């Protein structure tokens, strides 16, 4: 048997942007890259998913890309909710400081 009698099986490789999407989305859920990571995960996941579907013979990793997109949206929504919560708490709990009488200290020779 020679090598030419057994064709090698080609397995498509995982799309790099799908992995990047998942990593960015996970970092977007953590306080490392709060909203930027989520947006990056959504964008790279969408790009990689389109390329995977267009060239299934060349790329794999559609599930990884989907997970990156979903986690990216979750991180983005949670980040926006957190910002809204912080802004509303600043409005609700802000202290109304009224200016009091000015105290003037003068030195007497």
What labels would you give this structure?
3 helices; mainly alpha; 109 residues; two-stranded parallel sheet; rod-shaped
Topology, pairings included?
Blueprint (H helix, E strand, L loop, with lengths): L12 E2 L1 H14 L4 H21 L4 E2 L1 H31 L17
Parallel strand pairs: 1-2
Helix pairs in contact: 1-2, 1-3, 2-3
Helix content: 55-70%
Radius of gyration: 27 Å
Low-pLDDT windows of residues:
none
Placed side by side, the strands forming the largest sheet appear as 1-2
Q: Looking at the structure, what is the overall shape?
A: rod-shaped
Helical region count?
3
- The share of residues in extended strands comes to under 5%
Number of domains: 1
What's the main sheet like? Answer: 2 strands, parallel
Instruction: Give the number of DSSP strands.
Output: 2
SSE pattern, N- to C-terminal: EHHEH
Mean pLDDT, to the nearest integer, reads: 88
Helix/strand/pairing class, anyone?
mainly alpha
Euclidean distance between termini CA atoms: 112 Å
Overview of the structural elements:
Helices cover 61% and strands 4% of the residues. The chain contains three helices and two strands; from the N terminus they run E-H-H-E-H. Helix 1 (16-29) runs antiparallel to helix 2 (34-54), helix 1 runs parallel beside helix 3 and helix 2 runs antiparallel to helix 3. The longest helix is centred in the C-terminal third of the chain and has 31 residues, at 62-92.
């Amino acid at each position: 048997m020679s090598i030419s009698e057994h064709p090698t099986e080609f397995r498509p490789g995982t799309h790099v942007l799908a992995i990047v999407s998942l990593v960015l989305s996970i970092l977007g859920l953590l306080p490392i890259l709060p909203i930027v990571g989520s947006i990056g995960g959504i964008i790279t996941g969408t790009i990689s998913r389109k390329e995977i579907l267009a060239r299934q013979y060349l790329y794999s990793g559609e599930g990884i890309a989907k997970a990156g997109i979903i986690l990216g949206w979750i991180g983005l929504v949670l980040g926006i909710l957190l910002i809204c919560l912080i802004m509303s708490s600043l409005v609700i709990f802000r202290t109304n400081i009224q200016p009091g009488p000015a105290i003037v200290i003068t030195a007497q020779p």
